[in-house]
Amino acid sequence: MKEIVNNYDKKPAIAAVASHSALDLFDGAKDEGFRTIAVCQKGREKPYIKFSRVVDECILLERYKDVLREDVQRRLREEAAIFVPNRSFAVYVGYDAIEQEFEVPVFGNRYLLRWEERVGEKNYYKLLDEAGIKRPKLFNSPEEIDRPVIVKVPEAKRRVERGFFVAMDKEDYWKRVKELKEAGVIDDEGLKNASIEELVLGAHFNINYFYSPLLEDLELHSVDRRIQSDLDGWLRLPAREQLRLAGNPRMIEVGHLPATLRESLLEKVFDMGEKFVEAARKLEPPGVVGPFTLQAVVTPELEFVVFDVAPRIGGGNNIYMGLGSQYSKLQFGRPISLGRRVAMEIRLAWETKRLAELVT
Fold first, then answer.
1. Structure pTM?
2. Cα–Cα nearest to 165, from 131, 202, 205, 195
3. How far apart are the C-alpha atoms of 264 and 258, rounded to whole Å?
């Protein structure tokens, strides 16, 4: 791998699976003068063809996982591509294949991607505990439930979607399971991999960071919030109508909104980010490289409780595409997108012959 990334004669291209946050990555790459390569899946390629200004080459495949084909990997290596991982890359290609079969330099720590999961030896609960970051209490079985909980379970038909539901107590848990199984939303297989977490009430924020190994600095980049279907529609209704409606609101992420945090909370935000970077470095060297997101609740006591982790670029960063974020303006004197921040790091590494410090 180092023989590939040490070929500094050719300026690298920036590549990504064409989904999730890829448009922000491609737009930022073009702003920094890089060639871009979109790995597209048939039936989902139109946005990347229509926005051709930011996509120099579209590699069209039957399915995303075909990026593992030798001819596709050879093409990416010929372009000296640096592949930037997003959630779609992790989900559709798979952790084992990314770690063992994908012979293209990956921006960041490819081995940290699987820590986003809630089950298995490597999971984000362990990362947060190592960092000393507060998280919701975890229940090992439904019989332990003694307070309101949120249950995180893969959907029956679309395993990449998480069929979250809330239960007030143990009896309500089994009632909701029965309702959702009858509706075909979840199944027994998904329940085997479910996480049952204490329901923490507060304001929800996605806190987007960037750690630069070249500058040895943690940056707060931006903050956003999720728009979820069809929970968003339920919340727009008065309580009377919510109670009379049949069914269960879903929590499928469909978009994001920009947000800010009150300045008195920023000390804690930086503290959490620094602790996370140190924990990741200890548990999965070299640790964090580039963007990561901590999804947190802020309680009325102004405590942060982190309920989810993304050890790669987050999905909400597209809201700052072409505009730049508020906290990046404080850092650099001009607002930049997270996609551009990734490209800035790659450009600095290429110019100073330090690309090997950014890729695995």
1. 0.94
2. 195
3. 19
